[in-house]
Amino acid sequence: MSQIIGSGILLLTKINSKIHIILYRGVYKKEYEDLGGSMDSGEDIFQTAAREVYEESATYIKFKPEDLYNSDKIILDKYIAFVKIIKNFNKEKGMNLLQKYKDKKHYNEMDDIKIIDLDQLMISILNKNPILPLRYRLIEILYKLYQIPAKNI
To answer: Are 48 and 38 within 8 A, CB to CB?
Structure first.
């Protein structure tokens, strides 16, 4: 494994007893993704994930680094995604905050939120016809989440 240079959080929620994924769309690439990014100098993976999620969700989602210590995690080559289930996620509130902070550096990296049935999203990926434009890192995370060999990507 290479040296880890970034981390983030894969956000899930339950709707009618089914697992859904909460995805944010990047402003520049227009792809949906988990929330995360590169480590700043002096940060560990827990601090990075907590900071990145706070910034990219425009202050909506707040985790302390210690909230992630015992979380499930998905390890990629240079990135770690912690898996967290969010209760009572309010998409409207999230969208309002994205709009409010759209001109503030670090808080203006995302411009849309989708909540998608996780199994349906994965089926669409496996069929090579994703429901949404997705960042490659997210696809890698989902393959690991479902324990599908990477050669299938």
So the answer is: yes
Q: Which CATH number do you get for residue 148?
A: 3.90.79.10
Q: Are 8 and 53 in contact (CB under 8 A)?
A: yes
Hey, which bits of the chain come out as E strands? 6-15, 18-26, 32-33, 35-38, 72-75, 79-85, 110-117
User: Is residue 30 domain-resident?
Assistant: yes
What tens digit of pLDDT does each residue of 12-49 get? 999 999 999 999 999 999 999 999 999 999 999 999 99
132 part of a folded domain? yes
In sign, the C-alpha dihedral spanning 101, 54, 89, 35 is: positive
User: Does the residue 1 lie in any domain?
Assistant: no
Look at the chain and report how many structural domains it folds into. 1
What is the phi/psi pair of residue 63, to 5°? -125, 145
pLDDT tens digits, 59-97: 999 999 999 999 999 999 999 999 999 999 999 999 999
3-state secondary structure of 97: helix
Query: Do 25 and 89 contact (CB within 8 A), yes or no?
Result: no
**Has this prediction a pTM greater than 0.90?**
yes
